[in-house]
Design brief:
CATH class: Mainly Beta
Strand content: 25-35%
Number of strands: 8
Order of helices and strands: HHEEEHEEHHHEEE
CATH superfamily: Electron Transport, Fmn-binding Protein, Chain A
Helix content: 25-40%
Largest sheet: 8 strands, antiparallel
CATH architecture: Roll
Number of helices: 6
Amino acid sequence: MNEPEFDVQHERVRYDLPRLREDDLGEDPIAIFATWLDAAAAAGVPEPNAMVLATASPDGAPRARTVLLRGYRDGFVFFTNYTSAKGRHLQANPRASLCFPWLPIHRQVIVEGTVQRVSPRASDAYFASRPVESQIASALSPQSQVIDGIDGLLGELAKVSAAHPDGIARPEHWGGYRLDPQVVEFWQGNVGRLHDRFRFRREAGRWVRERLAP
């Protein structure tokens, strides 16, 4: 059997950034997140608003997948099918974790908190702003369910798109969630794997900042 070309055991990237210190951060993790997000975008990180969303099933089995961040000033917002695996998880266990892996700039942010649906009005507004093909695909796809093939969905997409070129109303099974952050951790790579980690956790209505061991 041929050995794989990529050596996962020994491949590594050397991190050599200036040491991250408390005074560089400030006291507001949402403001820090905004600054880091802008820096990721400016550095050309592909889809800097892409985040790994981790949820757990009613029996505690974890599952992670990538979704897109659609707001963060008043909680971290994303949209999906309520009947999908993540929707069912959040219905039973409304807690989640987000991870922003901005690998090209050697940074990562992890957010943990409770999750609830956004208002129907907010979901309607975002749905209306989406491309028509995305609206229709969201309405037609039985997300996370087993299907025989993709051809039937493609045919329905074409048919409904032709009948509704200006878009459709948001289906009831699709909408947004807002994660209320209770923990926000900032990670920045450094030499010798002695990375910089700062955790902000909400305690008695205020943010407490702590440096964590790498």
